[in-house]
Design a protein that fits this description.
Helix content: 25-40%
Number of strands: 15
CATH superfamily of the largest domain: ATPase, nucleotide binding domain
Strand order of the largest sheet: 3-4-2-1-7-8-14
Number of helices: 11
CATH class of the largest domain: Alpha Beta
Distance between the termini: 52 Å
């Protein structure tokens, strides 16, 4: 009996990492192996969520003095996946593997190391390494051109025709940007709490009470937050308290969540440059907070009434799976650094990924 080739997708983010593996082309109508993932990923590692599907979860990336350790996260998950596949499906080969990684363009010191991590386990596989903004885009719009804003711990918008035009907006981290993100909401919520402590305008006693329960006395907060390498994640962890306060009618929290949606819409509109079709979507956990999605939609209508805001078709993990499936069939989007690089079997470890000889791309000038 022939054993089908598999495709592997990995989503590496600031709150955790997820991997899904499936037979190539399985369960789809277009033969890309890119059917929506559907069920949440986060079950114990090495579980088979379907008769022919493997899911794993891993830790979040760590930002160290030398940058992100995303390559270590990918290497750990790839090794575990290879062991699980060998045990559950002897003889199965991986045709393609794709990674979507947070901070790829700014914090990952050597993106080629992610290719190396995959090739060390599956040397015969085609590999793709993409920014998480691109896998979010592929998941939310189902592989269609347009613009997508992803709002989780951070926030970034990407507008692209998936060939020549690529426009990035934000994604600069919680110190410089990530407007409307979870870390942005959390930081502003804590500022409202501090204002209540100090008796200043913009105060929210409700948020102060929640923050005191979460972090203890206000004078201890700087020491708790400033030295931490996971400061953005800690700030984002305060979002549920802001959402609870908003549901209870706290005016500061209600306005803060609405402002988050507006900031996300502004980034999305800025990504819809000429050459990008007027199609948009938003994705990410922050959109579940009351008022964020509605404010985003209203602000986008005001800024760009010509744009269709579509429901997100899938998650960033779905996008990585779509990318792996298209890579296996030779129909992946054209490589374009830093958004997407591709390596073919036989490329030397540590070598630059294989370029696309037909690629003639243009980066819309944005000073970034």
């Amino acid at each position: 009996m022939n054993v089908p080739d598999w495709v592997v997708a990995v989503d590496v983010g600031g709150t955790g990492a997820r991997l899904v593996a499936r037979p190539a082309g399985g369960g789809t109508t277009d033969g890309t192996g890119a059917a929506p993932v559907g069920a949440p990923v986060g079950a114990p590692n090495a579980t088979l969520a379907r008769p022919a599907e493997l899911r794993l979860s891993g830790r979040a990336v760590r930002i160290q003095p030398g940058g992100s350790d995303a390559a270590e996260v990918v290497a750990d998950l790839a090794r575990e996946a290879a062991r699980a596949l060998a045990a559950a499906h002897p003889g199965a080969a991986v045709a393609a593997a794709a990674v979507g990684a947070t901070g790829l363009a700014t914090l990952v010191p050597a993106p080629v190391a992610l290719h190396d991590a995959l090739a060390a386990v599956w040397p015969a596989a085609r590999t793709a390494v993409a920014a998480d903004a691109l896998t979010a885009h592929l998941g939310a719009l189902g592989g269609r051109p347009g613009a997508v804003v992803a709002a989780g711990t951070g926030a970034i918008a990407l507008g692209t025709d998936l060939h020549r035009t690529w426009r990035r907006v934000d994604g600069w981290g919680h110190l410089l940007g990530d407007l409307g993100s979870g870390s942005w909401v959390g930081a502003h919520g804590l500022r409202a709490a501090v204002a209540a402590h100090d008796g200043l305008p913009g105060a929210s006693p409700t948020l102060l009470h929640a923050a005191l329960e979460r972090f203890g006395p206000v004078p201890t907060w700087p020491a708790q937050l400033y030295p931490r390498p996971d400061r953005a994640q800690v700030l984002a962890s305060f979002v549920p308290a802001v959402a609870d306060a908003a549901r209870a009618g706290d005016a500061v929290a209600v306005r803060l969540l609405a402002e988050a949606g507006e900031r996300l819409a502004e980034s999305l509109a800025a990504a819809l440059v000429p050459g990008v079709p007027p199609l948009a979507a938003a994705t990410g956990g922050l959109l579940a907070a009351d008022g964020v999605a509605a404010a985003l939609a209203a602000r986008l209508r005001a800024l760009r009434p010509d744009v269709t805001l579509a429901p997100a078709a899938g998650t960033p993990l779905d996008g990585a799976l779509r990318l792996a499936g298209s890579l296996a069939t030779g129909s992946a989007p054209s490589p374009h650094e830093p958004w997407l690089t591709v390596r073919l079997p036989g490329d030397a470890a540590g070598a630059p990924p294989t370029p696309s000889p037909a690629l003639t791309s243009k980066e819309v000038p944005d000073g970034r």
